[in-house]
Amino acid sequence: MSESQRIGQLFIIGLTRDHLDAAERTAVAQFHFGSVSFTAKTSAGVAAVRAIVDAVQAEATPTATGRVKFLVAANQEGGLIQALSGPGFDVMPSALSQGTLAPADLERMAARWGRELRAAGINLDFAPVADVVPPGTDAGNAPIGQLEREYGHDPATVSSHVAAFIRGMEEAGVATSAKHFPGLGRVAGNTDFTAAVTDLITTRHDPFLQPFAGAIHAGVPFVMISLATYERIDPRHLAAFSPAVMTGMLRVDLGYRGLVISDALGAAAVASIPPATRALDFVGAGGDMIVVNQLVPAVQMAQALASAAAQSPGFRDRVNDAVLRVLRTKEAMGLLPCDA
Questions:
Q1: CB contact at 8 A, 36 and 9
Q2: Which of 35, 123, 203, 332 has the fewest CB atoms within 10 Å, measured from its CB?
Q3: What is the pLDDT of residue 16?
Q4: CA distances (Å), 109 to each of 55, 102, 112, 115, in order?
Q5: Looking at the domain assignment, is residue 338 inside a domain?
């Protein structure tokens, strides 16, 4: 693969109105973006989603991606956060309701939901949410509690159900992403819509990290990093730009060896930061894959990574380390060419 093709593997770009439009096809050809995600809700059903995914995978040509197939992701948590519905998809209960099930029952249900995703061509679910919302604080927690996205209100319950969801999806052949490390359960604002979201409580060895440790033990292949600032861990950086969070806590403390992906780097939490800076800071701090729904900043980010890699051997090594991790994960998922 060329260097530009390798850099393209570090991106998950959003499908415009849940279709790969002409501008995105051109960007895939020119900037070699190697993964995509559904960004809007659709009730079209499994067959319609599969047609879109098949069209996406047809773009995995020798010149575009070196014939490496795409990760195709969706936010399929349940409740209010179920991107894909319609014929062939179950109506998934909220994570809070899922948390009342026995873990074995949730695992069986997650396997069924995973088979639906596989039938639609989806191979990555941006779930489960591993954040813990303290009892009685749901109403004040905009990103998780208000939307019933948590599996419960204590680390043990959340941990057991996060692991069950991961195992069920894995049985169906769908990769998962535990989010939003190191947790959004104790913040007020939603980073999708609000800047300067700050956690004043979480510490580096906090008990509320247990669900993430459980997810890693269950073999989760992706961990998504939040866009909040954690005052008692690294007050100078958002988590997605923090070596202390991504390298120190996730890699060293928890021993995680999988892919580190960003929360959406087009969200309000980072809107005041130039796209190039977002990409350089995320990858430089230890991130592997950039999730960005908007095409223009994605192109700016890819150009910035290419320029920095050309100028700095150390940064090029960091990029290549991330690319190798992406390709190894894709190989395990059957997305590399047979002769690779």
A1: no
A2: 332
A3: 87
A4: 29, 11, 5, 10
A5: no
Q: Is residue 339 part of a domain?
A: no
161, 153 in Cβ contact below 8 A? no
Question: For position 30, what pLDDT does the model report?
Answer: 96
> Which residue is associated with the tokens 């959003």?
14
Residue 117 maps to a domain: yes
Q: What is the mean pLDDT of the chain?
A: 97
Q: What percent of the chain has pLDDT over 70?
A: 99
The tokens of 56 are what? 């996406």
Sequence letter at residue 262: S
pLDDT above 80 for 339: no
Kindly write down the DSSP assignment for every residue of 146-211, as one continuous string: GGT-SS-SSHHHHHHHHHHHHHHHHHTT-EEEEEEET-STT-SS-TTT-SS-EESS--TT-GGGHH
- Domains held by the chain: number: 1
pLDDT, average across residues 239-263: 98
Report helix, strand or coil for 228. coil
Rounded to an integer, the average pLDDT of 309-313 is 97
* Structure tokens, 242: 């923090």
Give me the CATH number covering residue 211: 3.20.20.300
What is the dihedral sign for C-alpha 7, 8, 12, 14?
Answer: positive
In angstroms, the CA 183 to CA 149 distance is 12
Q: Tell me which residue range forms the domain holding 287.
A: 3-332
Average pLDDT over residues 287-297: 97
Q: Is residue 188 part of a domain?
A: yes
Nearest alpha carbon to residue 180 among 125, 110, 228: 228
